Amino acid sequence: MSQVLLGMPAPVKSMGVVANTTKPAALAAVKELLEVANRQGISVTLEEELGHHLDTDTMQLCVANELAEEVQCLVAFGGDGTILRTARLVAGRLCPILGVNLGRLGFLAEIAPDQLAWAVSKLVAGDFLIDQRMTLTARLDGGEQTLTALNDIVIDKGDQSRIISLDVREDGQWVNTYVADGLIVATPTGSTGYSLAAGGPILKPGVDAMIATPISPHSLTVRPMVFGSDVLLRISAAGAEGKQMRLTADGQESCSLSNGDSVEVGKGEGQTFLVRFAHTSYYDVLRQKMHWGMDKKLR
């Protein structure tokens, strides 16, 4: 895995908490963390919205987009979507995220809820790694709006029924014109997400690259392509007249595209930092989440 130790991690004495409160197990897990942190002498600040679901009389609260400035690390309870949202709150700051998986796959999460006490003891001792992950930035041509993604940037046909045309150029050189439902530009982190479902390859997070994966292309000869992270992709979109297409970052933030709009996609200036422990490798995660080799164990 792309485990980049940025100096020796300092023992954690303060943490922020973000949670997907729609998941039934979230509030119970947060309460357990508060108890564990209290025993370990760690200061905990809750995202303000989360605090509304708990007894907030004795709890520290903070608005979501300022949370990363107040604490040493963030703990995110939920699935990968919660961790992706937390990554936007961090916005390139050196405030690592510890993901606690309450979802199904949880590729980005490092621990399960029953490992909370163990994980907190590791944080207090400074016995953890900081995993540095590449991000992507998408900028709409002629506008100031910028979207940042840890997993992927997607241009798709939106609510129109017909396929669209996507002209892709790398630093001015024509690559291809994709006639498809859309195009996914993914980081190595996002290679196990939407891009994988659309037929893209898996990249180990340490690979300095990005993947362009077409969504349901019209031609069977069209395949995903891997580009170096130092290139800038310019994607010009054309669809049915009067119909809007869509630009989306990590499946969460989006804006509309009109016929003829262009988007520049490249490596983001900031990185996202994840808390990792030395007891697992990236291949352990792949085997577990993908159920690789499960048939052999059943024989």
Tell me the domain tally: 2
How large is the count of helical segments?
8
Broad shape = elongated
| CATH first level of the largest domain | Alpha Beta
Strand content: 25-35%
CATH fold-level topology of the largest domain = Rossmann fold
Structural class: alpha+beta
Mean pLDDT: 90
The CATH architecture of the largest domain can be named as: 3-Layer(aba) Sandwich
Terminal Cα separation, in Å?
A: 30 Å
Gyration radius, to the nearest Å? 20 Å
Helix content, binned percent: 10-25%
* Contiguous runs where pLDDT drops below 50 for at least 5 residues: 1-7
Structure description:
By secondary structure, this protein is an alpha+beta fold. It folds into 2 domains: 14-133 and 271-298, Rossmann fold, CATH 3.40.50.10330; 136-267, Probable inorganic polyphosphate/atp-NAD kinase, domain 2 (Tumour Suppressor Smad4, Sandwich), CATH 2.60.200. The protein is built from 8 helices and 19 strands. It has helices at 26-40, 48-51, 67-70, 80-90, 116-125, 194-197, 282-290, 294-298, and strands at 14-19, 43-47, 60-62, 73-78, 97-101, 129-133, 136-140, 146-149, 152-156, 164-170, 173-180, 182-186, 209-215, 225-228, 233-238, 245-249, 253-257, 262-267, 272-276. Strand 2, helix 2 and strand 3 (60-62) form a beta-alpha-beta unit. The longest helix is centred in the N-terminal third of the chain and has 15 residues, at 26-40. The radius of gyration is 20 Å and the shape is elongated.
